[in-house]
Amino acid sequence: EVQLVESGGGLVRPGGSLRLSCAASGFTFSTYDMYWVRQVTGKGLEWVSGIGTSGATYYPGSVKGRFTISRENAENSLYLQMNSLRADDTAVYYCTRAPTTVPSRYFDLWGRGTLVTVSS
Amino acid sequence: DIQMTQSPSSLSASVGDRVVITCQASQDINTHLNWYQQKPGKAPNLLIYDISILQRGVPSRFSGSASGTDFTLTISSLQPEDIATYYCQQYDNIPYTFGQGTKLEIK
């Protein structure tokens, strides 16, 4: 089955760290760009990181310097290392992919998400 | 960053109605505009990419169009299973940005 499964969410104190994982299956992981998108409960979607097939990484200003995206193609896995966490990082974090065989960039497969709560 | 402004933020319509959701980009994004549907408690699901190309499996009652920096998602005949929140998203520039969402309800 083609799927993405996130794990690693939980409760962490402000200033703390957390590492999210995303296990991919059913497709050739190494040929897709991979991304993390988050959503505060009841709010909209925010793109928080991306990594290309070459390993190039991209971040918005809100997380740059605090979050690090990485991938391990041999393990079909995507990671998000989150440091210096703040209360406004509290959200459901989704793993998603974008095909690279076309010029377009769209998120055509999403995981179910993992909840990160930053609170003292 | 490119701002994506959706309207309306919420919408109530009857089964069978034609529904139109709009999204305005703060600058030219070419054809780099996608639409997603998110049902309550679920992950987003890709509906349309590059303004008007339907993702496989998406019903033909969904369509997309554009005029300059204004983009439109149309549901030609609303069905009960279309109840969801809809988001536009641009990928012309990093950071990729989403609209704030349009919550669609049945009247």
What does this structure look like?
Chain A is mostly beta strands and 120 residues long. Helices cover 0% and strands 51% of the residues of chain A. Chain A contains no helices and eleven strands. In chain A, strand 5 and strand 6 (57-58) form a beta hairpin. Chain A is globular, with a radius of gyration of 14 Å. Chain A starts with a strand and ends with a strand. With 107 residues, chain B is mainly β. Chain B has no helices and eleven strands. In chain B, strands 2, 4, 5, 6, 9, 10 and 11 form a seven-stranded mixed sheet that branches. In chain B, strands 1-3-8-7 form a four-stranded antiparallel sheet, with no helix packed on it. In chain B, a hairpin with a 2-residue loop joins strand 7 and strand 8. At the A-B interface, strand 5 of A face strand 4, strand 5 and strand 10 of B.
How are helices and strands ordered from N to C of chain A?
EEEEEEEEEEE
Give a count of the beta strands of chain B, DSSP E runs of length 2 or more: 11
**Net shape of chain B:** globular
Q: How large is the share of residues in beta strands of chain B?
A: over 45%
Shape of chain A: globular
Number of helices of chain B: 0
Give the percentage of residues in beta strands of chain A.
over 45%
Oligomer: heterodimer
Mean pLDDT of chain B: 97
Q: Percentage of helical residues of chain A? A: under 10%
User: What is the gyration radius of chain A calculated from CA atoms?
Assistant: 14 Å
Low-confidence stretches of chain B: none
* Largest sheet properties of chain A: 7 strands, mixed
Largest interface (CB < 8 Å): A-B, 21 and 24 residues
